[in-house]
Amino acid sequence: MWRSDPSAFKTFAALRTSAEWDGSRVYVAVDGVPAPELAPTTEPWRKIEIEASKRIVAAKVTDNDVFDTVLECTSVALGLTLSLLVSEEVVSAEDDVRGLPEGARTRIEVNRYERSPANRAACIAHHGLVCKACGFDFGAFYGDLGSGYIQVHHRVPVSKMGEDYFVNPVADLIPVCANCHAMLHRSDPPMEVEELARRLKQ
């Protein structure tokens, strides 16, 4: 984790700030020393501690209040941990090819974009696994087969991001089902998730 690239540390800081704005208390220590901020270093870490806690404000605390708070704090700690993991590279075809006979050979140029599994995991840890446009839950519908599955939509298309664009996984990413994801990209620029949700309610 100490060898993560600078963008991972920026993601960590953004998630930490977002959690604290939501009322969580986040404690981070490296090798036993509290760390208000994390930055790239050449000195290996032997141990990192990440704790998240939140006070329950309610006239009468129920089991559901406790469960929801524990789940939220766990999600915060998991998202922070995952944000410091390495990224993966995927290949995305920029344009599809039309008007060619089946089986014809053609040369297709693609652009390579870097997507971070840590950003995806942090998005899901914060927003959950239910589609934010239509409410579809793969786990509830498909059982074990769909458990843990959801697609993640970039509010700013990856192809439009510059090399220095910093992705905030809470603000810039949002979980959606495959159908809604396809509908969002029927327009250019993509439709806002909130607009699609409004249309579906109509």
Structure description:
The protein has 202 residues and is of the alpha+beta class. Helices cover 34% and strands 17% of the residues. It is globular. The strands form three sheets. Strands 2-1-3 form a three-stranded antiparallel β-sheet. The protein has a two-stranded antiparallel ribbon with strand order 4-5. A hairpin with a 2-residue loop joins strand 1 and strand 2 (33-34). The chain has helices spanning 6-21, 63-83, 117-127, 138-142, 178-184, 193-201; strands at residues 25-30, 33-34, 48-53, 88-93, 110-115, 151-154, 173-176. Residues 131-186 form the HNH domain. One of its GO terms (molecular function) is nucleic acid binding. Keywords: Endonuclease, Hydrolase, Nuclease.
Q: Quote the distance from N terminus to C terminus.
A: 46 Å
> Residue share in helices?
25-40%
Radius of gyration (CA) equals 20 Å
How is the main sheet built?
Answer: 3 strands, antiparallel
Mean pLDDT across the residues is 81
Number of strands: 7
Number of domains: 2
**Strand order, sheet with most strands:** 2-1-3
Percent of residues in β-strands? 15-25%
Overall form: globular
Class from helix and strand fractions: alpha+beta
Order of helices and strands: HEEEHEEHHEEHH
Domain HNH: 131-186
Organism: Ramlibacter albus
Pfam family, one: HNH
Protein name: HNH endonuclease
